[in-house]
Specification:
Layout lengths: L8 E5 L4 H12 L3 E6 L2 H10 L4 E4 L5 H7 L8 E4 L14 H29 L3 E6 L12 H21 L4 E6 L7 H7 L2 H9 L10 H6 L2 H8 L17
Parallel strand pairs: 1-2, 1-4, 2-3, 4-5, 5-6
Helix pairs in contact: 4-5
Bound molecules: NADPH dihydro-nicotinamide-adenine-dinucleotide phosphate.
NADPH dihydro-nicotinamide-adenine-dinucleotide phosphate (NDP) binds next to helix 1 and helix 6.
C-alpha cells in the first residue's frame, strides 16, 4: 500500500527515540513536512542528521508553560502524533506522588495541551486534520508494577474518545493506537526479564514482540490511522496490535 503525505505538515512528540523517531522518519519518507518534538537535544541532532528536512523542537512536555512558548509559532499542522510518554515502573505500594505527577504530566496532560494548540489552528483554518494518540494495550490490561502507566493510558483512551466527539464536527479525526510490546528503550525497561516476557508473549497471537521498530512503524496503524481511519463513536475503535499487518 502506497501512503503519501505530500503537502501535509506533521508533528510527532517524543520523536527523539523509539516509536516516535521511527514515525517521524516514516512520515518524512512519505512526503510530509515533519516537526519533531522531544526532550534531549542530542537525539534531535542525530535525527536531523538522518533526515535533514525534519524541523526539531526541544522541549520538556511535562512543563506546560515552556511547552506553550516552544509551540506558539508552530503554525498549521495537518497531522499530529501524540507519542511522548514515560514509564515509571514500581509496585503499587511504592508509588510516590512525584512519579504519579510526572507520568500524568507527560502521558496525559501534554496530549491534551499539544492537541489543543494544534486543533485550535485546524479549527480556525477550517481544513480539518488528523490526530493519533499513542496509547497502549496497557490501557485495558492490568500489568504488574504498571499501576501509574496503565492508568495514564486508560486516561489517554478516554481523552481520545472525547476529543473525537468534540473535534469531529470540525473534520478533525482523532484515534488512538494501542500497541503491545515494542523493544524500544521503554520496551526493554519493562520486558527484558525473560520470565516476564514469556507470560506477555503467550498472550500475543504471533507469539513475539515487535522487534524491527522501523518496519513496524512503516506498516503500522499510526500511519494508517493518520491517512484513513474515520471516527466511530458507537463501535470499538482501537487498533490493538502494533505488529506488522
Ligand atoms: P521511548 O522511551 O523509546 O521513547 C520515548 C520518547 O519520548 C523519547 O524520545 C523521550 O525523550 C520522549 N519523551 C519522554 N518524555 C518526554 C517529555 N517530558 N518531553 C518531551 N519528550 C519526551 O518510548 P517508546 O518509543 O517505546 O514509546 C512511544 C510511545 O509508545 C509511548 O506513548 C508509549 O507509552 C507507547 N507504547 C510503547 C510500547 C513499548 O513496548 N515500547 C508499548 C505500548 C505503547 P527522552 O529520552 O529525552 O526522555
Amino acid at each position: 500500500m502506497e501512503i503519501t503525505f505530500v503537502g501535509k505538515r506533521a508533528m510527532v512528540t517524543g520523536a527523539g527515540k523509539g516509536i516516535g523517531r521511527a514515525t517521524a522518519l516514516a512520515l518524512a519518507h512519505c512526503g510530509a513536512e515533519v516537526t519533531a518534538v522531544s526532550r534531549t537535544q542530542a537525539d534531535l541532532d542525530s535525527l536531523k542528521q538522518e533526515c535533514a528536512s525534519i524541523t526539531p523542537v526541544c522541549v520538556d512536555l511535562a512543563d506546560w508553560v515552556t511547552t506553550e512558548v516552544a509551540l506558539q509559532d508552530i503554525g498549521s499542522i495537518d497531522l499530529l502524533v501524540n507519542n511522548a510518554a514515560c514509564a515509571n515502573l514500581q509496585p503499587f505500594l511504592d508509588v510516590t506522588p512525584d512519579q504519579f505527577d510526572q507520568s500524568f504530566s507527560v502521558n496525559v496532560k501534554a496530549v491534551l495541551q499539544v492537541s489543543q494548540i494544534v486543533a485550535r489552528c485546524m479549527k480556525d483554518r477550517g481544513s480539518g486534520g488528523s490526530i493519533v494518540n499513542v496509547s497502549s494495550q496497557a490501557s485495558q490490561c492490568a500489568l504488574k508494577d504498571h499501576a501509574v502507566y496503565c492508568t495514564t493510558k486508560a486516561a489517554v483512551d478516554m481523552l481520545t474518545k472525547v476529543m473525537a466527539l468534540e473535534l469531529g464536527p470540525h473534520q478533525i479525526r482523532v484515534n488512538s493506537v494501542n500497541p503491545t510490546v515494542v523493544m524500544t528503550e521503554m520496551g526493554r525497561l519493562g520486558w527484558s526479564d525473560p520470565e516476564k516476557a514469556k507470560i506477555m508473549k503467550s498472550r500475543i497471537p504471533l507469539g513475539h514482540f515487535a522487534g524491527q521498530i522501523q518496519e513496524t512503524v512503516t506498516n503500522c496503524p499510526i500511519l494508517l490511522s493518520l491517512v484513513s481511519c474515520s471516527v466511530r463513536f458507537d463501535k470499538k475503535y482501537e487498533i490493538n496490535s502494533f505488529l506488522p499487518l
